[in-house]
Model the fold of this input.
Amino acid sequence: MRIITASLIALSTIFAGTAYAAQPNPIQTLPATQTQHQHLLRQPMPNVVEVVPVGIPKDSKQRCPQWEPKFAEHGLPVKAFSYIAWRESRCSISAWNRTLNKNKTQDLGLVQINSSWKTVTRNICGTDITGLFNVDCNLSVAKYLYDNGGLGHWSL
Done:
């Protein structure tokens, strides 16, 4: 999955660079057309299309749209984490699976970070595992886990 994502980012970067390089240089144009070319340079870049991983249903009702800006802010794949948050906590930052897992740990917060990540939580958020009830802490730890193991931490 990382290879596909990296390939898409690389292609987007190449496309953007090619499109930018193909535009006329406003310094070399006549004054009458300079304004037109400056307008071209100010156009927004196209959005990168997110590839939805296998295992994520297409049903938009199984999402947490209210949290999607936060997923994007933390650099997480929006559609994947919108589904994960729905599946794990039904979109509730205060979700707490108090039933102990087989390894006697618990899952906390929006995307149900396991309490075994207490050292990572302390290093990233400066708090104990209860910091996982804060959306920014929860998603910062999720970003660390995603960058170090991908969606496998959530069985996707």
In short: The first strand starts at residue 96 and ends at 97. The chain has two domains: 2-41, 65-154. The first helix runs from residue 2 to 22.
